[in-house]
Amino acid sequence: MPIFAPVGRMFLSFLALVGRVTVFAGRTIGHMIAPPIYFRLIFKQMREIGYFSLPVVAMTTLFAGMVLALQSYSGFSRFSAESAVATVVVISMTRELGPVLAGLMVAGRVGAAIAAEIGTMRVTEQIDALVTLSTNPFKYLVVPRVIAGLITLPILVLIGDIIGVLGGYLVGVNKLGFNEASYIRSTFQYLEQLDVVSGLVKAAVFGFIITLMGCYHGYNSRGGAQGVGQATTNAVVSSSILILISNYVVTELFFTR
Amino acid sequence: MSTPAKISLRNVHKAFGAKKVLQGVDLDVAAGSSVAIIGGSGTGKSVTLKCILGLLTPDQGSIVIDGLDMTTAIRSDHEAMLAKTGMLFQGAALFDSLSVWENVAFGLIEGKGMKPKLARDLAIARLADVGLDADVANLSPASLSGGMQKRVGLARAIATEPEILFFDEPTTGIDPIMGDVINDLIVKCTRELGASAVTITHDMASARKIADRVAMLYQGKIIWDGPVSEIDQTDNPYLQQFVAGDIEGPLDLDLKHL
């Protein structure tokens, strides 16, 4: 049947892609644990990935927390459970919305920038130049970005969690008429350490995925400006999909007994 | 007694899928000599250079540098080889994220572990060697003209005082006068360092000025190899056509794929 051949080819090329990404990830991890480590570049990337992503993550989580308070109040009022709003906001933000929204926003901002920068370096022979100057491109370009992603995403998400809860508090107190003290008490009453920790673990996983996919697609880009553009698109799309898949996997690992 | 070969290629093959680019390249570069590999677009000049540098792995054959076969060498030997080479890329390949002096000093700081302050002084001295003022040291590479970028690329290539220099199309993309300036700088720097040099070019004026010997690559093989002084006396019809720049002749130009 003629339909099977293209499907088979697509499946085989997908498996080959998975293999290439896995080898790339393995090489990255191998170089992460062997010297030299470029600490100066790690700090520079932490600033690029973390500090400069703060405004976009803060805005996203602030409004997510605000809308979550509004929506849960409107829904829970149907069965007189309005008092659960603060608990729902804090658990939703720490477990899911904080890491996922921050991950997706950073994937769009940072994943694209990494793929574009490394892709341009590839097509202008700057990566070859690194090799001729006795510098390993993996150690110089990939490892600092991946380490920075691993470290900064959890910090970004922690800040995003706090801002999201603040958004819920502002709406709860100023618009929905909750008492300030009781809203804060409800926020912490049912919050468990695992809720926050699972979100931070997710953030670290997302940080790894975003930076790895940005580096992979940039490093393997071909064919000039069009190739760099394609690499940028692929980096954002693949990291966004992997964030959503890995979000389910990590959630299942933490919360399924 | 002849000078021992610094670089020796034997029966080097490289294919990309069904496309056979190199089909048995043999080439010797004597220590301290300058060889230009000439040939039309798509004949495999850049692939040859990338195979020598280890940026591509040949499918077959040997590439011996200082007596060590790089196709079977371990990583540390390969790194040691790269530490004694310098390369000027066709588009200069300067790092956008670094200033001019950081580009020139890159090999000194990252490759040789030199302190940045000392490396900066050396980088400015190298910039002076290629005719650039200290004023450009703090500029971004993007703010320089094409000719200045090439000169910065040359300064970066010679900064670590390498034993072997590679030049990829050094005069492409710049005007003839600046091309001649680059050629003169290449000759000067190579002589001062006493380095062996391999240049790939299709610019015959550049080849004549830079090289002691010329090797012509055609259909994946070296079809002529001799002193630069014999180019005009050759009876090789392929080289005659290439030097004259004629459309008519034995060279299969395959214009649809160039």
TrEMBL record, chain A:
Pfam families: MlaE. GO terms for cellular component: ATP-binding cassette (ABC) transporter complex. It comes from the Bacteria. GO terms for molecular function: phospholipid transporter activity. InterPro entries: ABC_MlaE_roteobac, Permease_MalE. Keywords: Cell inner membrane, Cell membrane, Membrane, Transmembrane, Transmembrane helix, Transport. It is found in: Cell inner membrane; Membrane. The keyword RNA-binding does not apply. The chain crosses the membrane at residues 49-70, 146-171, 200-219, 231-250. It is a multi-pass membrane protein. Could be part of an ABC transporter complex. PANTHER family: ABC TRANSPORTER PERMEASE PROTEIN-RELATED, PROTEIN TRIGALACTOSYLDIACYLGLYCEROL 1, CHLOROPLASTIC. Belongs to the MlaE permease family. This is ABC transporter permease. It comes from Thalassospira lohafexi.
